[in-house]
Each structure stands twice: as structure tokens, then as C-alpha cells.
Design brief:
By secondary structure, this protein is α/β, with parallel strands linked by helices. 31% of the residues lie in helices and 30% in strands. It contains five helices and six strands; from the N terminus they run E-H-E-E-H-E-H-E-H-E-H. Strands 2-3-1-4-5-6 form a six-stranded mixed sheet, sandwiched between helices. It is globular. 41% of the residues are buried. The structure holds guanosine-5'-diphosphate and magnesium ion. The site of guanosine-5'-diphosphate (GDP) has 18 residues, from helix 1.
């Protein structure tokens, strides 16, 4: 079976649920605690995807930023060598979608061939202010990315986000 090693970065504003999505994907758990760690955390998970009729084993090195998540504080070393990014916004905070363009631009400067997938997270939180799906669609189209409405809490579409990025990179 062809194998591929990829580096994936989580990008998005503070508290959109990046760490929670990674936790859900890796260990299938959700914690309400706000875990403010320091530095980067790197995890590994293998997914099997089908890319242009080939079955490919994709080993994902998943990088999650811990503390300072301001745009200008995202270090070059975090993005260096990354093949793609999961861009995360919060369904209940429309302004977090606007930031994704800047994160994507930053990633593309580090790697012009980087692929993206957009996760609009906290889709379980209803009712309240909601991000407009049309805007989500527009951004995804602009980045030639797929988007998913996710919930790290329920697990909805979390696996799909990571698998889709793996599939896109295996193609
Ligand atoms: P990060 O700063 O982007 O890594 O965000 P965290 O993963 O630390 O999550 C921030 C807060 O949002 C925490 O209190 C999480 O429990 C909560 N959270 C994350 N994802 C979800 C979700 O899908 N649904 C709900 N209801 N809360 C979430
Ligand atoms: Mg985090």
C-alpha cells in the first residue's frame, strides 16, 4: 500500500476548539476544561484513504498550537514543512471566520502548495448567533477547500475533516 507522511497544522482564533477537535479525533473524548498548554503539541495518527483509486496509508503528524495564538505570534517553525492545515472557526462567533483568510495566507506563504479544510466548529451550540453558511461556502471555494460543520463535543464530522485533508493531500 502506498504510504504518505504529512504534517498538518491546526489554525484558528483562540478558543474556537482546535485542541478539542484534535482530542476528539485522536482519543474520541471531549473535555470541558479549558486546557491552556504551552508551546506546540504534536500527535500522530494514521488514516487509510482512497485517492484516485489508490488506497493510501496517510500518517498525519498533527500540530496544535498551545498558548499564544495571535496571528503574528504564530511562529514560522510551526508552519515550516506543513503540507496542509485545518482552519477552524466557531459557528457562534462569526468574526472567527474572517480570521481564517489571514491564517490561510500565512500557511500559503510557508508552503504555496498547502491544502486546506475548513471546520466550522461548535455546531452543537443552538440557538444563538450563527455564522452564515453562505460565507463559509464562499471562503471554502476561495481556498479550494472542503468545509464541515463540526462539533468536538458530539464528535460530528470531526473524523471527516481530518480524512478529507488526508485524501486531498494523497491525490
Ligand atoms: P482552542 O483554543 O482553539 O484550542 O480551543 P479549545 O479546544 O481549548 O476549546 C475552547 C473551549 O470551547 C473549551 O471550553 C471547549 O470545551 C469548548 N469547545 C470546543 N469545541 C467545542 C464544541 O464543538 N462544542 C462546544 N459546545 N464547546 C466546544
Ligand atoms: Mg488549543
Amino acid at each position: 500500500m502506498p504510504a504518505l507522511n504529512i504534517k498538518v497544522c491546526l489554525l484558528g482564533d483562540n478558543a474556537v476548539g482546535k485542541t478539542s477537535l484534535v482530542r476528539r479525533f485522536l482519543d474520541n473524548v471531549f473535555e470541558h476544561r479549558f486546557a491552556g498548554a504551552i508551546g506546540f503539541r504534536v500527535n500522530r495518527k494514521v488514516v487509510i484513504v482512497t485517492a484516485s483509486s489508490d488506497v493510501v496509508e496517510v500518517a498525519m503528524m498533527i500540530w496544535d498550537l498551545a498558548a499564544s495564538e495571535d496571528l503574528d505570534q504564530v511562529c514560522t517553525s510551526y508552519l515550516r514543512g506543513a503540507d496542509g492545515a485545518v482552519l477552524v472557526c466557531d459557528m457562534t462567533r462569526p468574526e472567527t471566520l474572517e480570521s481564517l483568510r489571514a491564517y490561510a495566507a500565512m500557511m500559503s506563504r510557508a508552503n504555496p502548495h498547502a491544502r486546506f479544510v475548513v471546520a466550522a466548529n461548535k455546531d452543537d451550540l443552538l440557538p444563538g448567533p450563527r455564522l452564515a453558511e453562505a460565507q463559509l461556502q464562499a471562503l471554502a471555494a476561495e481556498l479550494r477547500a472542503s468545509y464541515f460543520l463540526t462539533s468536538a463535543k458530539t464528535g460530528d464530522a470531526v473524523e471527516a475533516v481530518f480524512r478529507e485533508l488526508g485524501r486531498a493531500l494523497a491525490n
